[in-house]
């Protein structure tokens, strides 16, 4: 074979290997992943055939390899730049406990390390386990119809427990506290009159929860304004069709070891660790949802 053509085909082969190595660590949606692997494999076998051919490869065959490599290059470029929304979708029963975004002891003195360890490692983990079990029964095993009501209740309780706790950890920060700024502050002032009025209403709502539950600042999609809603347990009396922005866990496991029955003190101190950046980011994203969105 003409040396020039041989060198050219060999350089294409090296390029293919580099692409394959580079793509190994990239997580793509299943279909996209199959697509580029199929194109790469077709292209590789065509290239190998040409390299092994005794006769001189025709210009048409070289052009075909070239065309396929250009197509492959553009496909990979497109996939890397436009990952599908479904990327990272969590399959039923596959939830995992998220790590805390800070160390266990960094919210002290407002929330003790002992509470954070128990709260995150034991309580939150149990909601993750409970949700995975309920989802497996409902979607994977499709178990006895008579038990649907039970598993639906388990899914709601543990699912809400898992999602709310995941948000709660993000809603706090060792560098938190103070007052929000920018768009979030303007929205709070518009909808509640002042930051002080919002804080008082949120705190009073948290203190009013009977037994166990949450206080939440939410974005009401349809009315285009902020609202406050309490949640009993994790899922009862929930306000639907809203996006929660800021949540406060007022279950006893969140404060009893440190504050005993003085929930008022816990709520008062909690404001020192609110992560306003997380709330602002969520408000920004929530406002992008257009209504009606179904
Ligand atoms: Fe909790």
UniProtKB/TrEMBL annotation:
InterPro entries: Fe/Mn_Superoxide_Dismutase, Mn/Fe_SOD, Mn/Fe_SOD_BS, Mn/Fe_SOD_C, Mn/Fe_SOD_N, Mn/Fe_SOD_N_sf, SOD_C_sf
Species classification: Bacteria, Bacillati, Bacillota, Bacilli, Bacillales
GO molecular function, one term: superoxide dismutase activity
Alphabetically ordered keywords of this record: Metal-binding, Oxidoreductase
Manganese/iron superoxide dismutase N-terminal domain sequence ranges: 95-173
PROSITE patterns with a match to the protein in the record: SOD_MN
Enzyme Commission identifier(s): 1.15.1.1
Enzyme class name: oxidoreductase
Family to which this protein belongs: Belongs to the iron/manganese superoxide dismutase family.
Boundaries of every Manganese/iron superoxide dismutase C-terminal domain copy: 180-282
Source organism, top-level taxon: Bacteria
Protein name, per record: superoxide dismutase
């Amino acid at each position: 074979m003409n040396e020039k053509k041989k060198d050219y085909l060999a350089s294409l082969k090296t390029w293919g290997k580099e692409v394959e190595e580079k793509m190994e660590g990239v997580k793509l949606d299943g279909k996209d992943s199959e697509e580029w692997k199929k194109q790469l494999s077709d292209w590789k076998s065509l290239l190998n055939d040409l390299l092994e051919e005794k006769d001189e490869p025709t210009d048409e065959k070289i052009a075909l390899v070239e065309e396929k490599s250009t197509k492959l290059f553009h496909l990979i470029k497109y996939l890397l730049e436009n990952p599908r929304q479904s990327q990272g979708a969590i399959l039923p029963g596959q939830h995992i406990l998220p790590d805390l975004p800070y160390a266990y002891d960094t919210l002290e003195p407002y929330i003790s390390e002992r509470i954070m360890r128990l709260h995150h490692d034991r309580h939150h983990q149990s909601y993750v386990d409970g949700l995975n079990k309920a989802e497996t029964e409902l979607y994977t095993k499709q178990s006895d119809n008579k038990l649907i009501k039970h598993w639906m209740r388990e899914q709601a309780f543990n699912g809400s427990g898992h999602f709310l706790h995941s948000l709660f950890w993000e809603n706090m920060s060792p560098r938190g506290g103070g007052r929000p700024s920018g768009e979030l502050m303007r929205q709070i002032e518009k909808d509640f009159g002042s930051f002080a009025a919002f804080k008082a209403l949120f705190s009073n709502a948290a203190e009013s929860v009977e037994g166990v539950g949450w206080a939440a600042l939410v974005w009401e999609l349809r009315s285009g304004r902020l609202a406050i809603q309490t949640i009993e347990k994790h899922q009862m009396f929930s306000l639907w069709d809203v996006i929660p922005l800021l949540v406060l866990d007022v279950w006893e496991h969140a404060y009893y070891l440190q504050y005993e029955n003085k929930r008022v003190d816990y709520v008062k101190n909690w404001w020192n660790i609110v992560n306003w950046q997380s709330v602002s980011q969520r408000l920004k994203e929530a406002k992008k949802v257009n209504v009606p969105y179904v």
